[in-house]
Amino acid sequence: MQYVLSKSGGLLMHVSPWMTATATFFVQLLILFIVAGFLVVLRKNQFFRSKVKIKPLDFWPPILLYFIHEISKNGLSGSFIPEVVIVWLGLTLIVLIWQIFTNPHLTYRKFFVTFWRFSDLFLFFCWIVVGIYVIFEAL
Where are the bilayer-spanning segments (predicted)? Predict the structure, then answer.
């Protein structure tokens, strides 16, 4: 650790960029678990279970997109959102074409459920990869 003097003459602790990136990553992970836990508790309520047929992970894609932007915006190349979205939508088109050829009775509902479940997995994977990349870039 390195200590520097503040304007008032007191000592301030310098925090390394990799420590900041690591702390941000773990705070974001904690927020994801809090959101999922809150939704699990909410789903145990009989009123919400009968009205809302949504899984706790279904709330993660928008949150993960924001987290990817937040953790990567201070890096040398800026935010990784454009790259993640281009790959995400490109893979979604591939999945759509595959579904069209394998399932002749494809409906919008089936496609969008598959799209959203795929988004859950893919964006979580991208968030982990971007988080690890940003932490190692800051070393």
Answer: 20-42, 80-101, 113-136
